[in-house]
Amino acid sequence: MSLLEGKTALVTGVANRWSIATGIARALHAHGARLAFIYQGERVKDEVEKLAAELGGGKAYACDVSSDEALAALATELARDYGKHDVLVHSIAFVNKEDLAGKVYTTSRGGFALALDISAFSLIALTNALVEVLNDGASIMAMTYLGSTAIVPNYNVAGISKGALESIVRYLAYDLGERGIRVNAISAGPISTASSRQVKDFKSMLIKVENAAPLRRNITAADVGNLAVYLASDLSSAITADVHFVDAGYHAMGMYPGKDA
Ligand code: 0WD
Fold it and tell me: CB–CB of 134/90 below 8 Å?
């Protein structure tokens, strides 16, 4: 029997076929999960609907996570079309491009609020909207990055929002633990996507990882998908409130030998 047979998963954050959420959706589908998707707006609707059709014919709902009305409508639609869900994948972030370069202290009040709202608070908002749609024993996972706890030049307010997101993961794990619902973060190494390419000098991050990580390689969205399957499955039934790295071991390095590291 497949690891995720009989489980239903809501996947957020698919923008196109390079999105990390696309890799996660493919892996969840391959292991037997039934999928539902949200998309932010018309710009990405076609891509998401195409992927949904390819991966089992699940539904795709328009939902901007900055809108409480849209989240409430989503909860109603999911309950109507699917009943309960077992997995929630949060793979959403947004930061103004001008805040992904230079000095953190130049971040505007508005840019900070926007980054934290979309990239961190949205996990609270999604959970609150969907709490009755989730089965007891469900698994929630959120995408994060090393820039939450370590300085990654240019990642800036994105890193600050990931710090908040990881803290939210721990508090939600406590809130929902009495229902057996687990909440974890996946800390992925850099992957070239529409979002990550907004970070100044992003390509140099890929070169550094390849040179310095214990596995001497970068990771793919499929690597993230494999970890997501484990976190979605009953194999991780006692695992919650933690940050799980899928970064070829880069986070464990304290000193980087070699001129390109
Ligand atoms: O190196 C990387 N790519 C890493 C990404 C390393 C480690 C973590 N992450 C995280 C990101 O911070 C994010 O949380 O993984 C998550 C997914 O990022 P991604 O796959 O790199 O980026 P992308 O393909 O752009 O998907 C993010 C999507 C948005 O894409 P666009 O390009 O359209 O902005 O998040 C969605 C949107 O589809 N999104 C929203 N969805 C609903 N409501 C909203 C919103 N308000 N804003 C963004």
Answer: no
